[in-house]
Amino acid sequence: QALYLKSHNEFSCEPIRLRMCQDLPYNTTFMPNLLNHYDQQTAALAMEPFHPLVNLVCSADLRMFLCALYAPVCTTYGRVSMPCRSLCLRAKDECHKLMEIFGLVWPDDMECSKFPDCDEPYPRPEDLLTGSDTTDQPSMTVQRDYGFWCPRELKVDPDLGYSFMGRTDCSAPCPSMFFNQQELTFTRYFIGVVSIVCLSATLFTFLTFLIDVTRFRYPERPIIFYAVCYVMVSLVFFLGFLLEDRVACNTVSPAHFRAPTITQGSHNKVCTLFFMVLYFFTMAGSLWWVILTITWFLAAVPKWGSEAIEKKALLFHAVAWGLPGTLTVTLLALNKIEGDGISGVCFIGIYDIDALRWFVLAPLCFNVAVGVSLLLVGIVALNQVRMEIPLEKENQTKLVKFMIRMGVFSVLYLAPLLTVIGCYIYEHAYRSMWETTWMEENCRRYHIPCPYKVEQISRPSMVVFLIKYLMMLVVGIPSVFWVGSKKTCFEWASFLHGRRRKDGVNESRQVLQEQPDLAQSLLREPNTPVIRKSRGTSTQGTSTHASSTHLAVLDDFDEPIRTSSVHSKTSYHGSLRRSRDDRSDSVVYRGTEKNSFHGSGQRLDRPLSTHSSPHQTEGLSKHSSQRDKTESPPALIIHGTTESGSQVVDNEGTSA
């Protein structure tokens, strides 16, 4: 019986060097043999447990049966001669008791049912006739591509589900198959320093938000969540630097690992945790940048206000946290986790090109495409607003300033991210060549077949990996440039000295931002000068484009605007005038007293507004008691001042 195997369509006959198989009717064999041993040295190691049985001659057929499997006769190309099932059964039955004494078990790949049902000697006469034609050929005249054979040192327990370079139950060497120890040490310290810088920058951004949570509202709120994501990313890389390769690599264990190998799957709990945090927050950070461009688009194009965008916050959170969570759970189910011996963390796509392509490159490229599109549309829309809508010079300048800040922030984010994507594409394109080069350099060390017809060799550049890790962390630093301003310095100074901002300051800012139409209508009364105490708040822009103007004033300083508790517009403008001019002389207060409410002298003992001090009220009472007998009843003023009232104020201001 003869079987034709596609894997043996190109092979050469080589002399038998196995000690047990000398002095046989044939003297040439081929590799890989019927048990998939790729060379005679590996076959000899596998035959060692059977040496006592052969020496004791427990069966006359055992030696021939073993040689038929470990060193089969070399016949015509493409034809493999298999031993008969009867030969296997005789050897197994006759040596069964002796195998129990030596504690041996008949291997599964030698099970007799796998061989053809015949009763012929081995080798058959036709095998010897055809084999003689190829005996004189040199063993290396016809070479073949064996592919990658997993070395014995890298084989792992089949229950772990490992795979490496297309071979199951195999793992990559640790800490790295491409770089030496000196290069690895430098890279680890480099990653450690960069992770500390990124952790400090992003943590500063988040703490600045916690000091004043009302400062960063939509459309800029996603920057805070983006910073939180990269706090976690940089923290994982920093922990990987501290732990070195203790998490990413399997230590030598007689039961499972013959040599240090890369961790795969979810059996290592710490490695699984590192992967979940790193992958989840990397994808979430990318999505929060996309959401930032969406909110920027909504504020710039359809002119949505801060409150309208904030109503969609639940949807933003569901997408930004839900999609990365789904991808993370999917990768856990697929058992795609891999240790990174260079950085000490666990991620995906380090050795599995398919996982890199679909779970890293595809999401990042999609996010970049969507974000850049929305960003450009928003910039064009705001530029049209700046050119077509008549705004004050101050607001024009601030709108341009905001556009520049948004553009610079986006460039600072996109440049590192695009560099990371470029590094991933570089790895994706050259990974097979690097693996072939590694096989060429290590095949003799691991006793595995060397690559066939290697035309070009290439090793990865350490600089590329340094740039990749640098940009993976630097991409989180731009968040600190957004919060970096004098206002942030003042807030931190106040916080460190134990002084907190008054609630009234934020409330007044909230009133002006949330209700721009009301503020503008109050500040634009006839005969009343425009008072602008909240810097950057437009008082002459129309409500149609209030959201565009609002974009330009998100990060300006807030100054207190004193608002009166009374319902008269006269009191409102009076409080604004007092806040601006900071006047405290009694003449102004007497003028204000005479032109407030219904002119009743009985109300002089009450404060005119919620911001009037007791001292001012007392002064007003004293002056009014002396003037009530001689002054005429004050006129009621609704908008602005009456002629008589303004005359009194002007005269007394001149005398003062």
UniProtKB/TrEMBL annotation:
Compositionally biased intervals (Basic and acidic residues): 578-596
Disulfide pairings: C13-C74, C21-C67, C88-C112
GO CC, one annotated term: apical plasma membrane
UniProt topology in membrane: Multi-pass membrane protein
FZ domain boundaries: 8-121
Keyword rRNA-binding applies: no
Coiled-coil annotated residue ranges, if any: none
Polar residues bias locations: 536-550, 564-573, 609-623, 641-656
Any GO molecular function: Wnt receptor activity
InterPro entries listed in its UniProt record: Frizzled/SFRP (IPR015526), Frizzled/Smoothened_7TM (IPR000539), Frizzled_dom (IPR020067), Frizzled_dom_sf (IPR036790), GPCR_2-like_7TM (IPR017981)
Protein location: Apical cell membrane; Cell surface
Alphabetically ordered keywords of this record: Cell membrane, Developmental protein, Disulfide bond, G-protein coupled receptor, Glycoprotein, Membrane, Neurogenesis, Receptor, Signal, Transducer, Transmembrane, Transmembrane helix, Wnt signaling pathway
Region described as Disordered: spans on this chain: 516-551, 564-656
Domain G-protein coupled receptors family 2 profile, first and last residues per copy: 184-491
Stored Gene3D superfamilies: Frizzled cysteine-rich domain, Rhodopsin 7-helix transmembrane proteins
SUPFAM superfamilies in the record: Frizzled cysteine-rich domain
Name of the molecule in the record: Frizzled-3
Species, as recorded: Gouania willdenowi
